Predict the structure.
Amino acid sequence: MTRDKYEKHLFPSLKEARRRMQKETKQIRYQLPDYLLGIGNNKKYHIKTYGCQGNLADSEKMAGLLEATGFRPTEFENEADIIILNTCAVRENAENRIFGELGRIKNLKKHNPDLLIALCGCMPQEESVVFKVMEKYPHVDIVFGTHNLHRLGEYIHDAYFSKEKVVRVYSKEGEIVEGVPMKRAFPQKAWVNIMYGCDEFCSYCIVPYTRGKERSRHYRDIIAEVEELAESGYKEVTLLGQNVNAYGKDFTDIRYTFADLLLDLNRIDIPRIRFVTAHPRDLDQRTIEVMALRGNIMPHIHLPVQSGSNKILKKMNRKYTREAYLELIDALREHIPDIAITTDIIVGFPGESDEDFAETLDMVKRAGFEGAFTFIYSPRSGTPASKYKDDLPADVKKQRLQELNKLVNEGYLNGNKRFEGKTVKVLVDGPSGKNANMLTGYSEHNKLVNFPGEKSLTGEIVDVKIEKAYTWHLRGIIE
Ligand code: 5AD
Ligand code: SF4
């Protein structure tokens, strides 16, 4: 370890991040320090976001913070005074891509020596990443983690005025910071964090280390945020958490669960409420019953199964069986018969035999998934699974992924086909990237729908009659 060499900096430790303390999380209100006002005047920022919706929401906060200090956005890297890479650590290939980007961005400094480059998000929470950046990427000016992004302005100030690399990565989460300004990416749909962190410790996953312990926001703050969004014309809110079904479990003074929250949000006059990500162990009957009330709660659930084999689920520390998962699916379909169910699946987990994989394929058929994100297992240093013997050849893993994807794609098509000839409500995202005369958006069941229409319908909910279903989208006409 070369930690001593960099004593001025604050480094993370995955080992330290693993420890959970019982203490309650404090909530504080953000206030922009006066000395940061105007530091971004006449300057431009460019943020690149990788990974999950949690990172997209964090990037909206960083954009809000930057704009509060005077920065303006630019979509062009070569115009930017600061480039921020908001990173994902879930799989190794994502990390490699980001290191590639860091290498490429270096050249921009030749043309603009004052350019600041910042690396943040999940990757810097790994000490190995920070050391690699120190040793091999000296052109990176600012490194900070997930627990202190509200201090971005201070770090920019320090980088400008001290001309030294600023490395500030805390291993442990701090308070929940309310009132951080946000610049939302869309005018019609918004992310709303309901909790931070994860206490599940699935054996393959780095997230409980990079995002810290589970901390729920006070429901009053969440409800107020959704009410405000509704009043400003937003049509859809997606509630965010690594395991939304654990919402409220960390409250020590009140009893208030995810089902309570959904019920309260169901009363707000906003057309659509969605949530990601659900966890099969914590999804309870009451939540399913509240979802069945419908109203603004959308008939879609993303419920990661990860594997169909009990042996592998146990090694993954998922804390449910395939039978329990299938019972949940039955309960969901019993209460919400038309629900669309999507999932995440990992293949090639250490010890996955042909039989285990066959059970995963069988699970996909039985559960009737209408979509899945599928991954080859990627060992993450510091997690328990990274020490498991992983002797499955790479080509077997690839072959399994292909076989799985074939089946998953049939599920996508079947899920889309059930809407042929029907009329669905679509929240219009805007003109399709490929054809400016076509609009694109998502239905209540979260199906991608393309149809001819005017750009002015962007942000509206329109009725679209579905003419044809394809694997990845539906095509229709406005009714
Ligand atoms: N390797 C492969 N996939 C992973 N995921 C999380 N950690 C890993 C890993 N080490 C997948 C899981 C999770 C999704 C967000 O990413 O399927 O649900
Ligand atoms: Fe990772 Fe499991 Fe937490 Fe999801 S629930 S973030 S897979 S540890």
User: Anything to note?
Assistant: The mean pLDDT is 95.
